[in-house]
Amino acid sequence: MPKTYIKRTIFFTIILFLFIFLIKDINFSLSSSSSIKNTNQRILDILNINWESLYYANPLSVTNKTAQSYSVIHILWETLTIAILGTVIGAVFAYILGLLSSSKIVHPVIAKPILCLTTLIRAIPTYMYAYIFVFAVGIGPFAGSLALSIGTIGMLTKYYREIYETINFKIVNQLKALGLNKFQVFRYGVFAQTQNEIISYIIYRFEINFKEVATLGIVGAGSLGKLLKGYFEEALYPEFGALVFSLIIFTLIVESISNTLRVKFLENKNPKWIDLLINKCQHYCFATYKATLKLFKKDLDMSYWQTNAFNSYVKSKISLDKIPDKYISKKVIFLKNLKINIDYNDKVLVNQKYKEVISLHKKYIKEFKDNRKLLVNQINSQAQNYLKIAKTNYLNSKLELEKNYKTKDKL
Q1: pTM score over 0.85
Q2: For residues 350 and 348, what is the distance between their CA atoms, to the nearest angstrom?
Q3: What is the Cα–Cα distance from 31 to 156, expressed in whole angstroms?
Q4: What is the mean pLDDT of residues 309-316?
Q5: Mean pLDDT of 77-85
Q6: Do 344 and 363 form a contact (C-beta atoms < 8 A)?
Q7: What is the SS3 assignment for 351?
Q8: Which of 141, 224, 289, 407 gives the lowest tally of CB atoms within 10 Å of its CB?
Q9: Do 278 and 270 meet the contact criterion of CB atoms below 8 Å apart?
Q10: Domains detected in the chain
């Protein structure tokens, strides 16, 4: 123990000295009071958001020739488009290179050069690719999409290769032994084991690409960073604040959606609000399905999915029933399926009977909804009563145990 303590002390002392040396090397110093006041004023101007710039473009000064003004919604849409296009292109090529760089999928002679190539791609920052593509294809969103696709290839190829290294090759060998061809072996042996993790990494990379678009715009590969720079240089701080605020909100929304999708693919779980929404929809539809059962005089003791299947059958029966006379209306088909004996040549009578059946169906729906509300209230009240009883029993047992311990201590 003492030796370990001495080693840790020496280690943290070295780290502390390195930290102090780095602070001295970067010329760390505080600004003057006037610059702090100017900074505070700029922050207040940024917080005074110009909400009109969300929808309308505010032209920049004529002195700034490189920047063009757009509405914030247009900029965010362009940012999303660049991120999606770069992610999709990069993910497709990364999938192929990930397979070719895995020594367990292909021969090491092929895998090693591809691995070196993807490592070299990954070593260069994305904004450097943006510079290259700006010179190659010109300033604009397309250059940003190409730069993001190269960065996506470098990152996802590494993750894909690591996924391929961990798959269960016993399944692959068993599929080969069953006589499946190479495509079928890949489909059911490799792709089936890796698809959820691969999709998860694609979504994760999309988050990174969405945030990188602002950086790429500064070098001309997209309008977001270019506009941020232009607004700041021209002292259009309210417009700058609107763009930053919208970007933060949009980023949070994108992250929330991507995290939800990643959890769904990796753990096969829905967020609580989605489960609650599905539950609400099922409860709403269940009353309609039950009413359809009662209308057709079927057994009401069916589960949700059984009633759903019967309701789908009724709809298909009405729309897909083969009738010799093509001029017979769906109302007649519906009433015939209900086995209602009337004169079907009398259109007035058919319409009247159809309206009666529909009103009866609505009445059944209302009855089932009301009964469900009563049942839910009863269950909730019973649950509350059970909780109260359990709480009182717990407190009583706790008091009895305390009394027993006190009597034992006295003895």
Answers
A1: no
A2: 5
A3: 42
A4: 79
A5: 87
A6: no
A7: helix
A8: 407
A9: yes
A10: 48-269 (1.10.3720.10), 274-410 (no CATH)
